[in-house]
User: Fold these one by one.
Assistant:
Number 1:
Amino acid sequence: MVLDRSEGLAETARALAAGEVTSRALVERTLARIEASQGSLNAFRIVRAEAALAEADAADRKLTSPGARRPLLGVPVAVKDDMDVAGEPTAFGCCGQFPPVAEDGEAVRRLREAGAVIIGKTNTCEFGQWPFTEGPAFGATRNPWSTEHTPGGSSGGSAAAVAAGLVPAALGSDGAGSVRIPAAWTHLVGIKPQRGRVSTWPRGESFQGITVNGTLARTVADAALLLDAASGNHPQDPHRPPALDVSRAVGRDPGRLRIALSLKPPFTAVPARLLPEVRTRVVELAERLTALGHFVEEADPPYGQIGLAFVPRATAGIAERVGEAPFPALLDRRTLDAARLGRLLGGAPLRAARRAESALHRRIGGFFTSYDVVLAPTTAAPPPRIGALLELSGFATDRAMIAACPYAWPWNVLGWPGVNVPAGFTPDGLPVGAQLLGPANSEPLLVQVAAQLEAELRWSEQWPAPPVTARSAAA
């Protein structure tokens, strides 16, 4: 038996444990698919062909030995190129030849402990700043649903790899929606967990605590399984939420919930408008939740001026990365401009932004005394075309980003969980998504609701057409 691309993470792990397929066979198939798609999708920055085959052979030996099974033993998965993988460089979307790192980051280490084979590192824009995955370091990563469009960013490579069936699931990171946005634009489930749920070590905090590691998969169960495998803390992590078994929540009845449908974008300094083709799909999800027995009404969290707590943290984080960059002359001019702003805001404004978080927790946390979950658009627009944002000025890029993606970033300030679910397609066939948002440590509740929707909508049965490659075109 050789599993096809429709088999997800849990089914692949089950087939391996049952002896129906070998890890080597799966890894060989995965490598072949990556090679065939790289010219059209360009999802990967690094493919660990030799190392992954060696890891697969080691997994096969363990699979035939008696003893306790690991949950992902022999399963090939991908990680984003902001995560350290021993023996590989961590360029994080930047140009230049980076040295290999000596040790796995904590999230990668935990995936290996779960038995996963790290097949490669996926593309991301420079320092993960933008909702597109393009740049001079690696070219453009394309959306499997329409290769003329971006898969989003900054975890666009991971999203493209999962959406195309190259791997059953992948890790990404989310600093302003960078898991949820590409999940929305590639018809995937994307979990942004509670801050600290998945360690960002060797950084105790990434981008002043707004960035967390999360998961992308085709189903809720697979996204939760990868989340559980990667979860846990390094001894020196500053954020250590209580342990959860998120997978156990999948399929459980959440009961009748009070759900706030929030369609109004949080305050931004430039205009943002929810496009009708996205609004329609999100409202349809709200109607589906009502039909499932939940109480749904329009209501918006009291965000206030939450953006004042985001910008200093985001730009100070970029300034930190630029200060460590081995080739600053090769960085995008927008990156350098953002770093200059971050250095200006890195003193008192940054301290004020960090202090504001507790007040925001109290104010927005109070909203969850009236509601259990927020349903909101993940983006205001469908994915833009490749190149649409690449050559813009910094100000024009910011305007375009805010116009397309005004909904995701407040939950990064709060550090609370959010889950993107597929909401359908525009009339042009482009995927859009909606996010389920909750208070601290609410991942189990969010995946219960997401799984309810999945059982109704069966979104994992929809696939993009296989990408056209030079080989298939010639045939």
Note: Residues 468-475 have pLDDT under 50 and may be disordered.
Number 2:
Amino acid sequence: MKKLVLAAALTAAASTAFAGSYAEPVIEAPVVVEETAASSSAAGVWVPLVLLAIVAAVVAAD
């Protein structure tokens, strides 16, 4: 009877040890958030300044 209990205990311990197979871990790639280049407010200032300079040149020529 002792051998039967010992055999059952060893069988239970061995079956749980090899229950699953080895699988490589799944590693997800990190998410990279790239910031877009912010448009500078100086770019929107050049067109009105050039127009103002042209108007000033026309007024000064008269």
Note: The chain has two helices and no strands.
Number 3:
Amino acid sequence: MTASVNEQELLQFIIGKTKADPKQIELVLKHEKAYIAKVEQSSKGAVDIDSDDLIDHILGRPDVKLSELAVDTILEAEMEYLMKNGMAGYMD
């Protein structure tokens, strides 16, 4: 990612799309960021994230009290925001 993410704008976008609790959204994003950082350390260049592994990782955190569908919905809304702003995309 070359552009920086406006965290508040991202949060508001996800809230608007999902109607999820902002605190739970922040937890999901925090755990996602930690997971991606770990993957980036062992990789060079573009990072290919398996969404199922990511969701399992987030659901395994004791402070996340959401369903698998809720976590997936939050991550999809985040990806929509990032793609809309030219900061991410799906790999073929």
Note: Residues 22-40+49-84 form one domain.
